[in-house]
Each structure stands twice: as structure tokens, then as C-alpha cells.
Design brief:
Strand content of chain A: over 45%
Largest sheet of chain B: 6 strands, mixed
Shape of chain B: globular
Radius of gyration of chain A: 14 Å
Largest sheet of chain A: 7 strands, mixed
Structural class of chain A: mainly beta
Number of helices of chain A: 0
Structural class of chain B: mainly beta
Order of helices and strands of chain A: EEEEEEEEEEE
Strand content of chain B: over 45%
Oligomer: heterodimer
Distance between the termini of chain A: 30 Å
Chain lengths: 117, 114
């Protein structure tokens, strides 16, 4: 257990469904991230939240909608996805250090394996 | 355009030998580099990092070397153990204080042969 918990671990959804991925961190970190990992591709940054405010939207289609109600919770709402959206979705958190650098980078959750049928 | 590249998708090494994983980058603004290790069904976990002001950082069996002129870094594991079998990701970041974003490579699958 890394301190970042993602649910569900696996999700199969149809293209017309609406579902949500949840991420929770108990590390006291102030930044949270969504990453997408597709086969044979680098981890792709999707969204960044600092102190609950979205600071980055990396050209992600609107069928992915993030929500960060507080600094411990992060959601990714999914609707009308496509089969090519099938991937491992990873949540991460970090402690942003404004006078320096978070030397350990991110703490990742175990991910949600999403399959769109 | 991939700014962090791991050109070897897989590597097999005999137990007890040295494993060397390589990573190249194109963005000269990167000033901090990290290696992550990922087991199946788990998220990546931090392994070791290096700042651009250094050319070497060591932590037990793991050593990371940075060659800034070649925009190349490598992770050495010695001696390699069966538990080291995993996918290793190289990552890099630019000095954007307060909004750290990591750029990852595609990963190298390391298999340690007993």
C-alpha cells in the first residue's frame, strides 16, 4: 500500500456508459495527477491539480472530466468513451516544494485497468 | 515528439550480473531525472533520482549516471536479483516550481534469469 488508493481496480464499460474513477491519498500531499498508460506508449499526463485547483489539462478530450473536491480526493468522470480509451489510468500525488523540488517525484496508486467495449 | 526515450523495450540479465538500463532525452531544460520501477498490477514506485548538477547518485545496489552533454542517463543494478524483474521507467522534469510535471519514457522490461 503506497498511500494512494485507486478504485475500482478493473472496470469494463460500454461506449454509452458513464462511470467514475476514484483516487484517494493519505500522504498530506498538495498535488494530484491523472496519467494514462497505453501499451507501448509512455505514461501520458492528463490532468494536474495543485491545492484542489486544476493547473494543467493536457489536451484531454472532454469525455474525460476530472474533479478534485479536496486535496485528498481526485475523480475522473468518464462518458461516451471509445475503445481506444482502454488503458491503465494511474493517479499520483506529490508534495510540491515551492523553494525546491520534490526529490521523490510522485507516489502512484495501483491504477484502474479500463476496458471500453 | 517523445522527449524521453527508452530504446530497449526489454532486457534479460543473469542473476548476480550487472543490469544497465538506458534512457535518452531531447529537452535540454530537463534538470531532474528519476527512475521508477513497476511490477504487474501495481503502480510505479520511486527508485532513485539525480539532479542535473550531479553526474552520479548511488543508493545501495542502484546507481544512476547522468551525461548531460550526451543527454543520456543510465541505471545500473549490481548485483541483479530475481526481485528486480519489473518494468523500469525513466522520467524527467523541468524547473517549473510549484507545478512539477514528469515526462516519462516508454519503459524497459527487465528480466533477471536465475
Amino acid at each position: 500500500e503506497t498511500g494512494v488508493t485507486q478504485t475500482p481496480r478493473h472496470l469494463v464499460m460500454g461506449m454509452t456508459n458513464k462511470k467514475s474513477l476514484k483516487c484517494e491519498q493519505h500522504l498530506g500531499h498538495n498535488a494530484m495527477y491523472w496519467y494514462k498508460q497505453s501499451a507501448k506508449k509512455p505514461l501520458e499526463l492528463m490532468f494536474v491539480y495543485n491545492f484542489k485547483e486544476q493547473t494543467e489539462n493536457n489536451s484531454v478530450p472532454s469525455r474525460f472530466s476530472p474533479e478534485c473536491p479536496n486535496s485528498s480526493h481526485l475523480f475522473l468522470h468518464l462518458h461516451t468513451l471509445q475503445p481506444e480509451d482502454s488503458a491503465l489510468y494511474l493517479c499520483a500525488s506529490s508534495q510540491e516544494v515551492f523553494q525546491g523540488r520534490s526529490t521523490r517525484g510522485y507516489t502512484f496508486g495501483s491504477g484502474t485497468r479500463l476496458t471500453v467495449v | 515528439d517523445q522527449q524521453v526515450k527508452q530504446n530497449s523495450p526489454s532486457l534479460s540479465v543473469q542473476e548476480g550480473r550487472i543490469s544497465i538500463l538506458n534512457c535518452d532525452y531531447t529537452n535540454s531544460m530537463f534538470d531532474y531525472f528519476l527512475w521508477y520501477k513497476k511490477y504487474p498490477a501495481e503502480g510505479p514506485t520511486f527508485l532513485i533520482s539525480i539532479s542535473s548538477i550531479k553526474d552520479k547518485n548511488e543508493d545501495g545496489r542502484f546507481t544512476v549516471f547522468l551525461n548531460k552533454s550526451a543527454k543520456h542517463l543510465s541505471l545500473h543494478i549490481v548485483p541483479s536479483q530475481p526481485g528486480d524483474s519489473a518494468v523500469y521507467f525513466c522520467a524527467a522534469s523541468v524547473p517549473d516550481f510549484g507545478n512539477e510535471k514528469l515526462t516519462f519514457g516508454t519503459g524497459t522490461r527487465l528480466t533477471i534469469i536465475p
